[in-house]
C-alpha cells in the first residue's frame, strides 16, 4: 500500500477541530483507502482502541440499515454516551443515505442534520467520504455549509509513485506522462491492460456519473467536449471556441450556455480544472479565455485513445496538477510588453500564490535553441516586480540561477519535492 503521507498529515492536523472532516476528490483516487486503512492504522498505532473507531461503510450489506440517518445517529450515540473516552466516526459512501421523516415532528431529516448533531459531542470526531452519480464529493462538502474541513485528494503524484516503485526516475516519468497516477493501476503490469483499465474507468464511471448526476441530455455534446478538452490541454479556450468546434460537426447547433454548464459539471466532478488569466501589470482577471487541465494524464490519454502525444502540453499539465495538489492558488499570467513602441501580450505559464507570497513559473520541455530560450525568459524579465521567477525544464538535471536571477529547475527535482518554491 502506498503511504499517502501528504494527505494523512492533513487529516492529522484537523483532528478534533470541531468540524466534520470531508475527504473529497475524483472517484477512485483513493479516498476510502486513505480514511479506512491509512488513518485507521495511524490511530491504532498511536494508542486508539479498535472499538473506539466506529466504521460505517454504507455500500456494504451489513450497514444497509444505517442508510436511515436517524438509525445511524442513534447507533453512534449509544456507542459514545456515558463515557469520556474519545471516539472516531468513519462513514464511507455518505451519499447513499436516505432522507427520512422524523416520526415525532414530521420534518425531513438528512445525514447532514444528524452529523451536525453528532459533531456536538465533545468525545466524537467525525470523518466522511463518498461520491457517485447520485452525489459528487464536491456536493457532499457543500452540504455541510461551513461546518466541515475538506481534505482534497488527487490521483497519485509522481513522488508517491516513485516512493513505491523506486525505479529509474526517467523511466517512471515516461510512464507517468502516459498513464498518470490512478491508484488502480498499481498492480497492473501490462501496458495494454493499463489502457483498458483507464478507458473503462472513464466510460463506465466518470461519463455515467456525469450523465446521471447532471441530467445531461446531450451526451453527444458531452462526448465532443471531452474530446476537445483532452486535445486542448494547456491551451487557451472558452465556451464559444468549444461550441464552434462542435457546431462544425453537428446538425443541431448548440449555444455557449450549454457548454458553460457542462464545463462547470466537469469541474465539480474533479475531472478537469480551470485556470484563469491574470493581468500582472493591470492587476485584474480576464473573463476569458481560460486554460483547462485534466486531473490525471492517464485519463486524458485514454480519452484520446493514446493518439495525441504532445509532451510539452503534458508537462505543463503535470506541473499545474502538482502545484494544485500542494495547495497553491494557480493562475495563468499575462504581461504586456511595451518595448519598441508596441503593445504585445506575453504569457507566463503560472502565477502561483501562497497567502501573501507569489512566484512566477514557466514550463519548458527544452531550451536548446536561442530563440526558444529568449521567449521563455522574456515574459519573466518584463514583469516589473521582484517576485521569484522559475523555469521548470525537462532538459537539465541540476538547479541553477542564470544571470537574470531566474531559477532553472529540473522537472524531476520539482516533482520529487526537492525544490523550495517559496
Largest sheet: 8 strands, mixed
How are the strands of the biggest sheet laid out side by side?
A: 11-10-13-14-15-16-18-17
Beta-strand content estimate: 15-25%
Write down the overall geometry: globular
Helix content: 40-55%
State the low-pLDDT regions, or none: none
Q: How many β-strands, per DSSP?
A: 18
> What is the number of helical segments per DSSP (H or I, 4+ residues)?
15
Query: Distance N terminus to C terminus?
Result: 31 Å
Q: Give average pLDDT, whole number.
A: 93
Structural classification:
alpha/beta
| Radius of gyration based on Cα positions | 24 Å
Keyphrases for this structure?
alpha/beta; eight-stranded mixed sheet
Q: How would you portray this structure in words?
A:
The chain is α/β, with parallel strands linked by helices and 422 residues long. It has 15 helices and 18 strands. The strands form four sheets. An eight-stranded mixed beta sheet has the order 11-10-13-14-15-16-18-17. The protein has a five-stranded parallel beta sheet with strand order 2-3-6-1-7, with helices on both faces. Helix 1 crosses helix 2, helix 3 packs parallel to helix 4 and helix 10 crosses helix 11. The longest helix has 23 residues. The model has no long low-confidence stretch (mean pLDDT 93).
Amino acid at each position: 500500500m502506498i503511504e499517502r503521507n501528504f494527505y494523512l498529515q492533513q487529516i492529522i492536523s484537523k483532528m478534533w477541530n470541531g468540524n466534520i472532516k470531508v475527504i473529497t476528490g475524483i472517484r477512485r483516487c483513493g479516498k476510502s483507502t486513505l480514511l479506512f486503512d491509512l488513518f485507521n492504522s495511524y490511530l491504532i498505532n498511536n494508542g486508539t482502541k479498535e472499538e473506539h473507531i466506529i466504521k460505517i461503510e454504507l455500500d456494504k450489506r451489513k450497514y444497509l440499515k444505517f442508510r436511515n440517518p436517524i438509525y445511524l445517529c442513534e447507533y453512534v450515540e449509544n456507542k459514545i454516551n456515558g463515557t469520556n473516552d474519545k471516539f472516531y466516526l468513519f462513514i464511507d459512501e455518505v451519499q447513499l443515505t436516505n432522507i427520512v421523516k422524523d416520526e415525532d415532528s414530521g420534518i425531513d431529516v438528512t445525514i447532514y442534520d444528524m452529523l451536525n448533531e453528532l459533531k456536538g459531542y465533545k468525545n466524537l470526531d467525525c470523518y466522511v467520504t463518498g461520491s457517485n452519480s447520485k452525489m459528487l464529493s464536491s456536493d457532499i462538502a457543500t452540504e455541510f455549509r461551513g461546518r466541515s474541513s475538506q481534505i482534497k485528494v488527487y490521483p497519485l503524484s509522481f513522488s508517491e509513485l516513485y516512493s513505491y516503485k523506486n525505479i529509474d526516475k526517467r523511466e517512471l516519468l515516461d510512464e507517468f506522462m502516459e498513464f498518470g497516477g490512478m491508484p488502480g493501476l498499481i498492480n497492473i503490469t501490462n501496458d495494454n491492460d493499463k489502457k483498458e483499465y483507464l478507458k473503462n474507468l472513464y466510460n463506465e464511471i466518470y461519463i455515467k456519473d456525469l450523465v446521471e448526476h447532471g441530467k445531461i441530455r446531450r451526451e453527444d455534446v458531452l462526448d465532443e467536449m471531452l474530446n476537445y478538452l483532452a486535445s486542448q490541454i494547456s491551451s487557451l479556450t472558452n465556451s464559444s471556441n468549444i461550441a464552434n468546434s462542435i457546431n462544425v460537426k453537428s446538425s443541431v447547433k448548440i449555444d455557449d450556455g450549454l457548454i458553460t454548464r457542462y464545463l462547470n459539471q466537469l469541474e465539480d466532478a474533479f475531472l478537469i480544472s480551470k485556470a484563469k488569466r491574470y493581468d500582472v501589470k493591470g492587476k485584474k482577471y480576464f473573463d476569458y479565455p481560460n486554460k483547462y487541465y485534466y486531473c490525471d494524464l492517464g485519463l486524458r490519454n485514454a480519452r484520446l485513445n493514446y493518439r495525441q502525444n504532445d509532451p510539452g502540453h503534458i508537462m505543463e499539465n503535470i506541473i499545474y496538477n502538482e502545484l494544485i495538489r500542494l495547495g497553491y492558488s494557480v493562475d495563468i499570467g499575462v504581461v504586456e510588453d511595451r518595448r519598441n513602441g508596441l503593445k504585445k501580450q506575453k504569457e507566463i505559464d503560472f502565477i502561483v500564490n501562497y497567502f501573501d507570497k507569489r512566484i512566477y513559473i514557466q514550463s519548458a520541455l527544452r531550451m536548446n535553441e536561442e530563440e526558444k530560450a529568449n521567449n521563455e525568459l522574456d515574459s519573466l524579465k518584463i514583469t516589473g516586480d521582484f517576485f521569484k521567477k522559475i523555469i521548470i525544464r525537462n532538459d537539465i538535471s541540476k538547479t541553477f540561477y542564470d544571470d537574470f536571477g531566474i531559477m532553472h529547475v529540473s522537472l524531476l527535482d520539482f516533482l520529487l519535492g526537492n525544490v523550495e518554491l517559496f
